[in-house]
Design brief:
- The chain has about 180 residues and is mainly alpha-helical.
- The chain is built from 6 helices and 3 strands, in the order βββαααααα.
- A hairpin with a 4-residue loop joins strand 1 and strand 2.
- The protein starts with 9 loop residues before the first strand and ends with a helix.
Length: about 180
């Protein structure tokens, strides 16, 4: 769950600096650039070190773009057809653009989904998009990316027009044909 941190990040110390009379803790990054934190006592410096180590051990939050990629990989792993996987990406990528590609999944709210649905004209497409986003949100809850489903209670109103243009029945077509060729 979440991105992995760069290897080599670690916390060093605490060290006592006799010149300043302060205790320091070093955060050494993978590229060996050090950042220092200072504390008045060894006890405080130890607490700072423990807090820094806890942050390093915690996974980074997953962005909406990363979650979309992971969701598509999940669909692929569960045996979905490529067309379904592509459709999921096509319906979710605009949502990532509305939210912001680098925003974490947990910042996804109902108004973002409503904004995505407002971009779609056809009722059938709107319903399909809501269904896909709803499935994504339930998947994200299972993964721990979301605490609550932002699609809960959200509906698309309207009746889907099926069948396109009205057509003649076979009987009507025969009658018309007979009438035209008589």
């Amino acid at each position: 769950m979440g991105r992995k941190r760069k290897t080599g990040e670690r916390v060093l110390g605490p060290y006592y600096d006799a010149k300043s009379g302060l205790w320091r803790v070093c955060l050494r990054a993978a590229d060996r650039l050090d950042q220092w934190a200072y504390a008045a006592s060894e006890k405080k410096a130890t607490q700072v070190k423990a807090a820094m180590e806890a942050v390093l051990k915690a996974p980074l939050a997953t962005t909406i773009s990363e979650a979309t990629d992971e969701y598509q990989a999940h669909l692929r792993a569960t045996g979905r057809q490529e067309s379904t996987i592509d459709e999921a990406g096509a319906r979710l990528r605009p949502l990532a653009r509305i939210l912001g590609e680098d925003r974490v999944v947990d910042s996804l709210k109902r108004h973002h989904i409503e904004a995505r649905l407002a971009q779609v004209n056809a009722i059938a497409t709107r319903k399909g998009t809501l269904g896909r986003v709803r499935h994504f949100c339930r998947w994200a809850i299972e993964r721990g990316y979301l605490d609550k489903d932002p699609t809960e209670g959200l509906r698309v109103d309207g009746v889907v027009q099926r069948g396109g243009k009205p057509r003649l029945t076979r009987t009507e077509a025969r009658l018309l044909d007979n009438h035209l060729w008589d």
